[in-house]
Amino acid sequence: MTVKPGGFEPPSASPALFETDKANPFLAKAAELREIFARDATERDQSGGRPGEQIRLLKESGLVNLLIPKEFGGAGERYSTAMRIVREFARTDGSLGHLYGYHFSPLQNAVATVGNERSRDILRRSATGRWFWGNTTNSFSKSLFGRRHAGKVILNGFRPFASGSHVADYLMVAWEDEETNKRSFAYVPADRDGITIADDWDGIGQRQTGSGRVFYKDVEISDDEIWPERPPNPAALLAPLQQQSVLLNVFIGSAQGALMAARDYTVTKSRPWIFSGVERHADDPWIKRQYGELWIKVQAATALADRALAAVDAVFEKGQDLTAQDRGEAAIAVASANVLAGRVALEVTSEIFEVMGARSAVRPLGFDRFWRNVRIHTLHNPAEYKTRNVGTWFLDGEFPEPGIFQ
Description:
Helix content: 40-55%
Mean pLDDT: 91
Number of strands: 7
Largest sheet: 7 strands, mixed
Shape: globular
Structural class: alpha/beta
Number of helices: 11
Strand content: 5-15%
């Protein structure tokens, strides 16, 4: 091997690309599943529908119980581990990353109210049954209403953007009271009488997330299924940071996966441009420079995403000792990472076609799924307002007011 000036020896093998920490058994299992999911990711993306077999494998793996505390039968892992698994899945299939991350929203709500026996019961049952969770809680839609009748609440209406509902064992549902407009939540079986899961999602991306409508027709909710209100503490305001963490790690995983897939294609299949003067496409200085820029961008976005995960882990560990300052600092970390992750993911998933060449832009290869998944996901999470929040904090020291997306 030739030694370069300064004693540096270039690696003899291909560079390691976003290596998974397989010392962690949960991440190692996720990597195994990712390889299985990759076998038909393009076909499933194009057909849409339900990833039934993939959810079955997820449940069998036990990864659905990752964040349930050990005392209730779960693995008791840190939130960052779940988000790294979201990232792992999104490297080949953004829909499965999305579904897996959102599966934990109802469970984390139960963990946050674990002092209540109802929460403890749902955690035990979910762990034992290895339930997969969906939600019908869309915050913007005032389209599902409840009324009191004979000691129960009767629900009528629908919820849109009900991610995971089409493969769920249990659903978290939110509704407004017909008279008071008060918002309430409950956990109910997905097969309850009167619930119709339309499975009518037809977006350009995230094709298998089931983010369509769920209809409720005279659905009965008993009082012991209605969730207790969270205490007025900053710890009760972590749900937006959870959701935003899912989004940003879908972005990161998609960017990483697209870049790796493009690199493999360029090295093995791309042909050099007729005026490039090189025999191998990968030897073109233009291609080298553009891949260098893409690699640097994804590395930077990944580093900021890792910083945000550490911040979220830290606030979870605070528990009831969490302060508004702690929560605000974590919100800024997550917002910063989210903005960069979305921007970089859009750039990478689009620019890979320039470095792969014209033959890469055909539907059977499925490279377009990375861009479509990122594009539709970013539309539900406008970077403009997160950037303003970060700028306001930088200039005035004001944290964003806790809310649905911040």
